[in-house]
């Protein structure tokens, strides 16, 4: 099946792409939404510009759609991008990295229904700790690019997802109900390397911003 992936550059969309390709689907293109609203309800914002370099090292075409990021209105921009992918690349389906977010999954499904496309969520309802361990096992090199919940702070920025991370996030899940995979918006990620990449990306510049328990790091990569 010919598919397009809703792609943020984070672990979920990258792993969903990996699973889709592993299942034999052809990845026709990636679709990334650049939101002007850092508090977007739908879209990943820290280091989103890095998707251009990720698409390059995967050798997959990228469709970029800008949005003001206003609730619900941003869905019209998403639909515009998906419609463009269907017209340009003749896709049959959309793949997302949704794990548990009914808000996100239902809205993408609604758009797919309108455009007569299938919608696949390969990570849906996956056990979070099993998922994190799979990422490590399959050699995904991932860093934290945003934290948005107590007790996470700026010291977590640029941290790798590894065995120590899993151990600590398990403790925070028990004590503070932090979602282990960040599905509740507690943290966001960026993938520097994975089996889909022809070469690993390197961070060339970074900028930290935020306060209290809301911090972001914007990274430039090559």
Secondary structure layout:
Blueprint: E1 2-6, H1 11-22, E2 26-35, H2 51-58, E3 62-67, H3 73-89, E4 93-95, H4 102-114, E5 118-120, H5 128-137, E6 141-147, H6 163-176, E7 187-193, E8 203-211, E9 214-221
Structural summary, described in words:
It is a single chain. The protein is α/β, with parallel strands linked by helices and 222 residues long. The chain is built from six helices and nine strands; from the N terminus they run βαβαβαβαβαβαβββ. The protein has two domains: 2-120, HUPs (Rossmann fold), CATH 3.40.50.620; 128-221, Alpha-Beta Complex (putative n-type atp pyrophosphatase, domain 2), CATH 3.90.1490. Helices cover 33% and strands 26% of the residues.
State the main characteristics.
about 220 residues, alpha/beta, Rossmann fold, putative n-type atp pyrophosphatase, domain 2, 5-stranded parallel sheet, 4-stranded antiparallel sheet, 6 helices
Q: State the low-pLDDT regions, or none.
A: none
Query: In percent terms, what proportion of residues is strand?
Result: 25-35%
Indicate the CATH architecture of the largest domain.
3-Layer(aba) Sandwich
Order of strands, main sheet, comes to: 3-2-1-4-5
CATH topology of the largest domain: Rossmann fold
What is the average per-residue confidence, as pLDDT, rounded to a whole number? 95
- Overall body shape: globular
Largest sheet: 5 strands, parallel
| Number of E-type strands | 9
If helices are DSSP runs of H or I spanning 4 or more residues, what is the number of helices? 6
Helix content: 25-40%
What would CATH call the homologous superfamily of the largest domain? HUPs
**Main CATH class of the largest domain:** Alpha Beta
Structural class: alpha/beta
